[in-house]
Amino acid sequence: MFDKNVYIGRRRHMIEMMQAEGATGIAIFIGNVESPAQYRDNCYKFRQDSSWLYLFGIDEPRYAATIDIESGEQTIYADDADLDDIIWNGPTPSVASIAASVGIEKSAPYAEIDKVVARARELKREIHFLPATRQYNAMKIADLTGLKPAEVVSASKAGCPNASEALLRAVISMRLVKEDVEIEEIDKACILGQEMHTVARRGVKVGTIEQQIVGDMEGVALSKGWGVSFATILTQHGEVFHCHSHEMPIVPGKLLVIDAGVESNSHYASDFTRTYPTGGKYTQQQREIYQIVCDANEHAFKLTAPGVAYRDVHLSTVRGMLKGLKELDLVRGDVDEMVHEGIGGLFMPHGLGHNMGLDVHDMEDYGENLVGYDADQERSKQLGLGSLRMARRLEPGNIVTDEPGIYFIPALIRQWKADGTDKGMVNYDALESYMDFGGIRLEDDVLVTPDGARRLGGKRLPISPDDVEAAMTSE
Amino acid sequence: MFDKNVYIGRRRHMIEMMQAEGATGIAIFIGNVESPAQYRDNCYKFRQDSSWLYLFGIDEPRYAATIDIESGEQTIYADDADLDDIIWNGPTPSVASIAASVGIEKSAPYAEIDKVVARARELKREIHFLPATRQYNAMKIADLTGLKPAEVVSASKAGCPNASEALLRAVISMRLVKEDVEIEEIDKACILGQEMHTVARRGVKVGTIEQQIVGDMEGVALSKGWGVSFATILTQHGEVFHCHSHEMPIVPGKLLVIDAGVESNSHYASDFTRTYPTGGKYTQQQREIYQIVCDANEHAFKLTAPGVAYRDVHLSTVRGMLKGLKELDLVRGDVDEMVHEGIGGLFMPHGLGHNMGLDVHDMEDYGENLVGYDADQERSKQLGLGSLRMARRLEPGNIVTDEPGIYFIPALIRQWKADGTDKGMVNYDALESYMDFGGIRLEDDVLVTPDGARRLGGKRLPISPDDVEAAMTSE
User: Fold this and answer.
1) Are A255 and A437 in contact, with CB atoms under 8 Å apart?
2) Is the dihedral angle over the CA atoms A303, A304, A308, A309 positive or is it negative?
3) Among B59, B87, B359, B417, which would you mutate to test the A interface (most chain A Cβ atoms within 10 Å of its Cβ)?
4) Within 13 Å, how many C-alpha atoms sit on residue B80's CB side?
5) ipTM of the complex
6) Is A216 exposed, middle or buried (0-12, 13-18, 19+ CB in 10 A)?
7) CA contacts within 13 A on the Cβ side of B280
8) In angstroms, what separates the C-alpha of B102 from chain A's closest C-alpha?
9) How far is B103 from chain A (nearest CA, A)?
């Protein structure tokens, strides 16, 4: 938890922005409750709601708050421990003292928020809320607002049309620009993420079961942080993006994609990807593609600077990769035309990067367009560019991932060939020898600085093919 | 996943038991869906519902099933992957083939269950369901049955009065008696749990941050299993039962309670507790209490056998511990009277043990009395005995934990002293020097065999004070 003035300042700023937009009424915030895994009292590790953490800092379940947008009055709702709780859970500070520790003087029992919001609705005051991520929060917000749970829950990337746009705009604009205290935490999360990836790299040996490496990595994340910032991707089928089964042994001659990050104890994320040759040496074919991706990662980093739209960084990076693929005769024709026709999407169906902060895909549930696109930017429908989560013109304090990749996805290649999507620009015959290639992705986390960009974390994880091979050989 | 005949046999047995009770209609089963952690598409590691795993084995989200209790007809409901899914998630087997792999020939899209249950309700057929643990399942069952979510969700230990008792009785009676294939899995989970505890013991060094040990332990659980079977308890305040903060460094002279278990990849649990002297040697005071708990663990194990009520094992074990505490002049008077008056609850407010299987507290959400008490056993209201989760007369195939403990809980001692709850049998003056003691718990997992009991897992974790000290010194 930061100093209470951090939270006081954020809430004041939020209120001012909403007032400036002419918003009235009250804003409600529902912190997360415990989430059962096996049965009700056997829960997953508690994870607080990210905007709750941002505005209120209190990392305890079953808290709620109201903020009066007009008067600025703020109230925390939660229940104090009773004697039974003290016997089983030990002595705990009072809700009033916890509220005071984040600069809020008024607190009340949890059930009280129902009455406060009911009164506000009687007075026809506006009720502002953020999209709910979890079922419980949706049910609670629905109860308070009179809407249905389905109407207040986020549809993920699409966000939630009933949520308060004034509140969303204020919170998004603040969370997009990281404060110094946040950058410090994210640097720490990145250093721990690099430590985790180093443990992983040392574990890459033919015959080892993938799950062993995953467990060793996640142990590092848990020993010094909250855990992993998302389900670890560790796969010899890098062309499958969401592969969470790890029962395979490491076999020689493959590429192992490891995409993983840490969430720090303060709940800031890191997110790195490296792609290793399972036998310690890239084949000639692997090295050619690897070098294109490695150059793309560097190219994107060099373009990252205030005022530049990350959409343009994406497009320029894709252009560079297509140029490299053309030199290998995997695509043919004019590179600019290829970019325009979206040919890059066949090889990189995802975007160059996303915002990162308290969520690894920062604020994804608030609607990707609201978070990642400027008002004048329209989202593409092309495969690849259409998946770009962060397109905005960059500002100092933005934190984005730089994660180009090249994949050979048999189902997609077959589909494009059948549909003629490539307009004659893909050399399908040459692709035949890549059908078992897998994929390569290389990812760093990047802070936009006043004069450019800085890669976050400590010493950079080896990334050039020579450095990777050298690191693997020496270990 | 076991051979399909295991699941076919279980479902047949369940139907027969329900038919024998005169049940009619259909039973509905709602498998778990993904559970969001930070935002909707960033989920906790998927955990399937335990009874779903038991009856259907399919370890994938968003599955449902119906079983016609009269005709025996069984249907699986889930959605096949579309081309988009295949591009992002790789090729997956069809729902029909997954259903067939657990012996069910009929499958339909997920939405179809709504129509099937609606038809059954039109025909006034009975709809059987198990208590819902998670909010999504509660909402789905509520939609299907016309009840409210709050009416179908489990109130944890109290269970859910609207759930089908015929279905509950059948499932509980089956899951209480473990099959050989299950015992094999639980033995594996125990071996991995012991490996995890060994890593933990080696990490106990003055100055180490508790979280480091927790991370190292959980890494073992993840590297060969699904993860931990519950939130790891690792605390120098063993008298606080639910202590999940681990930021303290290990300090000399304390007792470190480590209560942790593994959930195997097949989702069977283990659960062990050991209590270590943080500096490697127990003090005289610690050793005296430790020996009482260690003897209690052994005493309980020796009494564990078919036909014996675990309630009686609890009481006899508490009696032994009170006898030991009397020798230290911490309690005074007649030991049998102390047992009768529940004086043991001051030192051990929890029960001796619980059932263990696919859940570490097996089936806790089905109602502790229904699961852990025979029809003729009434639950005590005394502190300690009242918390006993497993009281039943034991049968071969039962798996229970044997986990006596002694704690010195200042808030509870003060309360008893103020209220005179001890009826003059507690020597509060002598307890003064134990106010900073903490607590000790020693736990093994035990299978009831035809002629007694067997401790599960491999080589037993060191437990006698001499063995523990020797292990810590040699490491």
Assistant:
1) yes
2) positive
3) B87
4) 11
5) 0.95
6) buried
7) 11
8) 20
9) 24
Distance (Å, rounded) from C-alpha B58 to C-alpha B99?
8
Smallest CA–CA distance from A409 into chain B, residue? B87
B119 vs B111: CA distance, rounded Å: 14
- Going from the C-alpha of B296 to that of each of A150, B159, B318, B323, B459, the distances in angstroms are 53, 31, 8, 11, 20
Two structure tokens written together for A4: 């209470």
Q: In A165-270, which residue ranges form alpha helices assigned H by DSSP?
A: 165-176, 180-203, 210-224
Neighbours of B61 (CB within 10 A): 16
Distance of alpha carbon B395 from the chain centroid? 18
In angstroms, rounded to a whole number, what is the distance separating the alpha carbons of residues B105 and A251? 36
In the chain, the amino acid numbered B245 is S
Helix (H, G, I), strand (E, B) or coil at B287: helix
What does the pLDDT read at residue B235? 96
* Least confident among A49-53, A80-84, A438-442: A80-84
Percent of chain B residues past pLDDT 90, beyond the cut: 93
Per-residue pLDDT at A475 = 76
Task: Give the predicted TM-score (pTM) of the model.
Answer: 0.96
Name, in order, each residue with C-beta under 8 angstroms of B26's C-beta and a sequence gap of 6 or more.
B66, B67, B68, B69, B116, B117, B120, B125, B126, B127, B128
CA B112 to chain centre: 34
> What is each CA distance from A281 to A284, A290, A474, B359, in whole angstroms?
9, 12, 12, 44
Task: Count the Cβ atoms, other than its own, within 10 Å of residue A214.
Answer: 24
pLDDT digits (tens, 9 = 90+) for B369-404: 999 999 999 999 999 999 999 999 999 999 999 999
pLDDT digits (tens, 9 = 90+) for B97-133: 999 999 999 999 999 999 999 999 999 999 999 999 9
Tokens of A98: 């916890």
Give me the sign of the Cα torsion angle A438, A442, A445, A448: negative
Query: What are the tokens at A303?
Result: 């373009």
C-alpha separations of A301 from A311, A313, A453, A456 in Å: 13, 9, 7, 12
Question: Which of B134, B222, B266 would best serve as a mutation to test chain A binding (most A beta carbons within 10 A)?
Answer: B222
Instruction: With H, G, I as helix, E, B as strand and everything else as coil, classify residue B399.
Output: strand
CA-CA distance, B133 to B141, in Å (whole number)? 11
Residues A37 and B266: their CA atoms lie apart, in Å, by 15
Question: Do B44 and A50 make contact, defined as CB atoms within 8 angstroms?
Answer: no
> Which 8-state DSSP code applies to residue B307?
T
SS3 B251: coil
Cα nearest neighbour of B31 on chain A: A38
Alpha-carbon distances, residue A94 vs A54, A77, A86, A98 (angstroms): 21, 12, 12, 6
Q: What crossing angle do the helices spanning A135-145 and B135-145 adopt, rounded to 10°? A: 60
Report residue B172 as tokens.
């509980």
Contacts of A44 (CB under 8 A, 6+ apart): A34, A35, A36, A37, B35, B37, B44
SS3 B448: strand
Inter-chain CB pairs, A–B, below 8 Å? 187
Q: What tokens does B429 get?
A: 């003056």
DSSP for A191-205 reads: HHHHHHHHHHHHH--
Which residue type, as a one-letter code, is found at position B251?
Answer: V
The values of phi and psi at residue B150, to 5°, are -65, -20
Q: Is A423 left (phi over 0), alpha (psi -120 to 50) or beta?
A: left
Q: Which residue(s) pair with B68 in the sheet?
A: B26
The reported pLDDT for the residue numbered A67 is: 98
Residue B279: count other Cβ atoms within 10 Å of its Cβ: 16
